[in-house]
Write the structure tokens for this entry.
Amino acid sequence: MLHTIAHPSRMSLLYEIIPLAFLIEKAGGKATDSTQPVLDIEIKGYMQKVNFIAGSKEDVDYISEELNSTAENASGKKGSYNDLLEMQKSQS
């Protein structure tokens, strides 16, 4: 599911998605938060939340590229995915 202004994604607890990310990567796919692999994220606390994008390498690369572009992105609003995540964090 893409994160958009109209439909924000739900951030998942990191400890819940690490096993799933491990299995996806072992099966030849990719699991990321759009900027770095989920398995490379440093665990800072029990309740740490991250966004989760997973699937085939090609699909995840395409989605990450679209979300991180500086032009019009999937939300229909100019700005990077990190800007959208900051908006989501400030609203919750």
The beta strands are 12-13, 29-32, 49-50, 53-56. The first helix runs from residue 14 to 26.
